[in-house]
Amino acid sequence: MKISLRAGERIYVNGAVLRVDRKVSLELVNDVMFLLEGQVMQAADATTALRQLYFIVQHMLMNPTDIADAAALYGRHHAALQAVCENQQMLEGLTAIDEMVGASRYYEALKRIRALFPVEQAILAGTATNVPFEAA
Length: 136
Known about the structure:
By secondary structure, the protein is of the alpha+beta class. It has helices at residues 49-62, 68-84, 88-102, 106-125, and strands at residues 2-5, 10-13, 16-19, 24-27, 34-36.
């Protein structure tokens, strides 16, 4: 996989934070977990239940050697979301996310969570009758 970064941009690779000083292309030649700086959610932005789930899974991806506490928190938060959610799109998404997290496919789980942000927003706004679903 080839990734292009701008000067000053960061990438999180297997728990390490790398920052480049100039425009550069990286080629990842083996299987690694990575997150681009633009995909990183700050704690202050985790303002909804789904965004909090994203933040927890993000922590699991960024700190792969220390996920026990985050995994326990993920389990509780995910179960609470499933217990209160009535929207079919959201429930199907939560099931898929749980499978991905269970298989340590955190990047894919984050992508799926991001795709559900518009659904959650529609639920919170009370307009969740037919929200188009798009993969992030």
